[in-house]
């Protein structure tokens, strides 16, 4: 049985994808002031998953140039939506290989990178990843509202795939 936090991450990813469903390629490149464009958000979330669940967890790096394009603190960019979606799907599919194996015991441990333990436990990093998605889901909704989109998803979607399950 998969860990409940992994179930929540999968649900959160699906809510982010539900939020951006139907956006055109040109709309995904629009920046409002200091806000990032939606295609950047897709790549940025993929970048975090690549760092956590591929590089740290599996010593893999599928898209070496991604951090330079959409990493935190990097110059603003407007990458093509189709490209960022392809990157996101490839990274999350590979991340799932690791995430399907997490256990309560593993989530209390720390990754070691360059000989040093990471400051946050794997479980806290999983929380951070989930919360990061919700942050950018809200931001993407705001961008879509500024683009004049109507009938956007309201509230959180179908919880049937992410019902409460006691841990352990």
CATH superfamily: dinb family like domain
Strand count, sense and barrel status of the largest sheet are: 2 strands, antiparallel
Number of domains: 1
CATH architectural label: Up-down Bundle
- Could you tell me the radius of gyration in angstroms? 16 Å
Instruction: Give the proportion of residues in helices.
Output: 40-55%
CATH-derived topology: Four Helix Bundle (Hemerythrin (Met), subunit A)
Could you give the distance between the termini?
Answer: 10 Å
* Shape label: globular
For the largest sheet, list the strands in their spatial order.
1-2
Question: Which regions have little confidence, pLDDT < 50, spanning 5+ residues?
Answer: none
Number of strands: 2
**Count of DSSP-assigned helices:** 6
Proportion of beta-strand residues = under 5%
Break the fold down into its secondary structure elements and pairings:
Layout: H1 4-20, H2 38-58, H3 66-70, H4 81-99, H5 104-107, E1 112-113, E2 116-117, H6 122-146
Antiparallel strand pairs: 1-2
